[in-house]
Amino acid sequence: MDNYAILSVISFMIVFISSLFSIFLFTVKTENKTSNRLIAAFLIIIAIDISSFFYHIFIDMPMVLEMLRMDLPLLSSPLEYLFVLSVIYSDFKIKRIHLLHAIPFLVSTLVFMPRFYLSNTEARNSFFETYLDNPEVLFSIIIGHIQVIIYIVAIFIVLKKSKKVMLENFSNATTAKHKWLFQLNIISIILFAFSTGKTIFKFINDDFDTVNIVRIIMAFLVLCFICWLILKVLYHPEFFRRIDSKLKPVENIIAKEEIPIEHKEGEEVKQQIQRLRAHMLDQKPYLNPTLTIQNLADDLQLPVREVSILINHHLNQHFFDFVNEYRIQHAKDILQNPTKKQFTILEILYEVGFNSKSSFNTAFKKYANVTPTEYRKKTNHV
Questions:
Q1: Which key words tag this protein in UniProt (predicted)?
Q2: Domain extents for the chain?
Q3: Which of 330, 240, 216 is nearest to 284 (CA)?
Q4: What is residue 265's three-state secondary structure?
Q5: What is the CATH topology of the domain spanning 250-380?
């Protein structure tokens, strides 16, 4: 089997898997319809793009459709960016303004219009024969690469901002989703870097066999990426828990304050902190695994903005860390209590407000420098 045959087989596998999973995403009943449809569209574009290595075996594609197929990847980065937004923000909806993300695709299409789309068949054949030598192609490639870089940076910015908001507002915040989306962006960077290298190689070297070897490696990486993406989506539905896009980081709230926040330091702030700490010790709201800063503000009968500034600015802690500190102290009290030796670690973590063993162990080690089991053994031997 020659290199091109291997490339065709891998490409067919990618198209088959992507198409099958896209159908599933479009038809499955779920609350995450927007996210599912965006990632399905993303996979379909990948499938259409890579089908070029085998579709000619089955059909004779008109040159106009072939050119459109070659430009379709300009929509993949915008779809990935919108997918990230839809996974993070609960109030995300597709709007007309999002059509602006298709501008690079439309610009590229317009650039090809005079010398390709509006030309006769003979001119189109000539265009394809000297494809890489055409200035329109170079322009399209440059636009595509600039676009990918911009969206990669934009995704990193969104992830950083949303992670900060989540830690400032939710006691059961998990960074697993952000880690997954971060990994998705890193993999996109790797694929982009490899694709860029392949494109440069095509411009400087006309060795067809070597180009096909590079394409095989690229196709295999794409296949691995799609399989990884599918497994993540299927096995981690909890990643689709989202936040309100209207929530802003505390630093943004402070920046909009008419009175500088430093001028509000004083007796009033100290009293609010004392009241907050007394409420945490007396009422133990941290035992609620779904406690949010809004819940706490309602209990204290204070505006959520003030409570957020109080914790995240004056106490210099994320709400997530602030609550977990009380949870861990409660867990330590149980672990060192000889009358509660029968409590398992799993029972304790649920008792104090955690909802997963991994997050409990991570938080406990952060505050106690040892695992819960080690802490229990250590205190029982004292």
A1: DNA-binding, Membrane, Transcription, Transcription regulation, Transmembrane, Transmembrane helix
A2: 3-240, 250-380
A3: 330
A4: coil
A5: Arc Repressor Mutant, subunit A (1.10.10)
